[in-house]
Q: What sequence folds into this?
């Protein structure tokens, strides 16, 4: 397995786990990352929506392992998806809307996969 495949596969696992938390357990995820009690039903539905998008990103990561000609496109797409989440993570943390150990894990994961996929994109160009 190449390093590129490893990054894409790990990114797929990251997004699959995110989808699992967001779709299957949105109330629990909100309780772990916010002070809102009980978590608002609309927030849970928005997490489910975000979980669906994460399923698509997980599929993209897996599919990229079988489509070497798409490496640059997939790496840039996954980097943008994760970078946008890093930006949102920072914004909601600064606003005091999200916090805690579980939220820090989300932030770190989003940052790691932004950098990893950017590295794959740069390597594909060089």
A:
């Amino acid at each position: 397995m190449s390093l590129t495949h490893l990054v894409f596969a790990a990114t797929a696992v990251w997004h699959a786990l995110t989808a699992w938390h967001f779709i299957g357990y949105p109330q629990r995820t909100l309780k772990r990352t916010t002070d809102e009690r009980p978590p608002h039903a609309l927030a849970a539905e928005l997490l489910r929506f975000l979980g669906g998008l994460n399923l698509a990103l997980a599929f993209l990561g897996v599919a990229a392992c079988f489509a070497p000609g798409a490496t640059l496109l997939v790496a840039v797409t996954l980097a943008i998806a994760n970078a946008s989440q890093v930006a949102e993570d920072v914004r909601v943390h600064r606003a005091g809307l999200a916090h805690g150990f579980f939220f820090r894990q989300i932030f770190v994961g989003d940052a790691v996969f932004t950098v990893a996929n950017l590295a794959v994109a740069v390597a594909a160009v060089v």
Q: What stands out?
A: The chain has one domain: 3-125. The two ends are 20 Å apart (CA to CA).
